[in-house]
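Rather than argue in generalities, we reproduce a single protein record, letters for residues, whole numbers for local backbone shapes, just as it appears below:
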Amino acid sequence: MNVWIIINVLSLIFDKTYFFQFRAKTSYSIDINICCNNKYIVNTSITQFSGIVIDTTLSWTKNVQEMMDKLSTLSKAYCAIRAVKSFITQEALRMVHFSYYYVLQYNFWGELI
């Protein structure tokens, strides 16, 4: 692995580099240690890549749970807006709506669209 990294002029950030083994739900993982420049790459069972939670069995369970949590936050935000709408002006209500909207959109997708 060291040779391949050197030939392709790449570098690894070991604090952010992980590996995991894809496997069937009924099978066991194999104990593997990957070492590069005398530093071990950590084996993990779940990671997030481009806003999608991926686990070793390619199950959508964790990803769906995370999206449900974010949608719950969105629902609470709109309930809060509904609770104060009779006390503030239409312009202030619009400002609150868009501030929640963009913050939650960023939170939900991991980036502003």
Summary: The first strand starts at residue 18 and ends at 19. The chain has two domains: 2-55, 61-109. The helical segments are 2-7, 61-84, 90-109.
